[in-house]
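Ticket closed. Logging final result for Bacteroides conjugative transposon TraN protein.
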Amino acid sequence: MKKNILLAIIAMCLLTAMYAQQPGKSLQDASIEHYTIDISYNYTTVLIFPFPVIDADRGIRDLMATKQAQVSNVLKLKAGKKDFPATNLHVFTADGKVTAFDITYTDHPRQTTYDLSRMPPNTYIAPSVLQLDHVPYNDLQLSLLDSQVTTSQNFLHLKSKDQRMKIALKSIYNDGEVMFIHLEITNRSPLDYTPEFTRCYIQDYQKIKRSSVQQTTVQMIYHTTISNIPGHSTASCVIAVPRFTLSDHKKFHIEIFEKNGGRLLHLDMKNKHLLKTRKLPGYAEISNTVQ
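Final structure:
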């Protein structure tokens, strides 16, 4: 009996040693290509992206990264001090993708301007995306739902103002599967505002020092097409997204970028705003509309 117990213990020890010596799984297949850039103290390096830059995560503070005013897709890099150690940089763009760089210092860089729109698609890695497996409505139904939302009662009062522009949340309706977010955009300036594109995402709003940005893109099912908002005027917009809720430390963000301009419209919501959603009146009749 004691001999059997001893043999069992020895077998367990051998198995444990075998598993402990096995290497962990490699992430090589999930890696993306890193681009090497030389940065200088006396020269500015300019990166031109195909989409607006949302954020940039620097490996060290001595690497300075700033967005160019009025040009949302340009990032400027410069050394904060000479001979800083090799580091890295991850740039997050509005298309929900990431570009990675390995940064080294040099006094005389051979190249200082890069057009990233020429990069092949496999240099990007997309973050997680919240979306529906299918769109439950056709174009006609979505247009009718847009009208139904904008003519229904407004019951929310969240707003954001900047550069004489205002974006306000008026209501959130749902049909059980889709949320219809009614926004009102007011242009209080004498200059027309031309939207270029809209971006929706979820992000943790607890800012931890030196942490990377973690975002979940929310795929829009529909949004009102607004070609232009003249000066001193107001326009309504409806955005349809999959139904979701948020944990305590996350916010839902909506950003509208200006074409050939720097007026970014930004509105963020907490879970308490999403939970005030109401059933959309008449959506059942609209859903039965012949395609």
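Helices lie at 2-21, 139-151, 271-274, 283-287. No further action required.
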